[in-house]
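Entry 14. Ran structure prediction on the chain below.
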Amino acid sequence: MAQPILVTVDGAVLDPDVPILHADDLAAVRGDGVFETLLVRSGTARCIDLHLQRLSRSARALDLPEPDVEQWADAIAIGARVWTEKNDGAEGLMRLVYSRGRESAPAGSVVEKKAGKQTGLTRDGGGATEYLTVGPVAERAAHVREHGVKVITATRGYSVDLAAAAPWQLLGAKTLSYATNMAALRYAAKQGADDVIYTSSEGLILESPRSTVIVVEGETLTTPPPESGILEGTTQQALFAQAEKEGWETKIAPLSPADLVCAEAVWLLSSITLATRVIELNGYTMATPDRPQDFSELVDRAIG
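Output, structure tokens:
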């Protein structure tokens, strides 16, 4: 049985079975915070710099205190090491959590212990809650990596111009407010699908609730522009950098559902499931590339 890991931002390894959040933490009562998920593989968390850069961008979007990325990097290294030691090198899902802290006055210390109990994880003077956990990668990840997913499109109900016109919508920030994304996935399941690809009010492709959309044509990779109000994918950035080194062409450009249907292959990229091929879109059976493993192996090289 996997042994989960809990680490504070200052590197303290705590008992994962002891509660740490106060009932009035704004992560719980308002989803007022940001997070990142990293894959731990072979004892190392992958794409750390890209994740910490995005954590900082998300924090700025929410007017949170600037995260201490060096301290976070140290905590990540500790979490990956302890997870690997306790779980025989198995893949792990690492989640960084950074919220505004308690609705009431902050406790004022990174780790507050009373009577042997963990009672809080707040930044000294800042009130922010900062910690990471590591747990097992769900069996679903291995399944979809191998077998792909059936996907439906679903409108998000807003224009690709909304992100620029309404920055308070926090489009492109990885916030803890994921209720809508989870509702979309439940809706897909009721339709007999595994996942969703959002579309804009103009009918353009956006993203999946947990993934970035990648279209493959020959040795050309295309993904929608982040300016359309989508989360900039860390795995996508690593993939494009590696692909360019190996002679692939990469494009960031608008895509339509027709572009997906006509493509050689469509993939969903995320930090944990990595490369998942779309095998069916709105009931239409997608084309199967001659060597889908070439793309999966490229993603593996990209994340190190």
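Residues 115 and 188 are 47 Å apart (CA to CA). Will compare against last week's run tomorrow.
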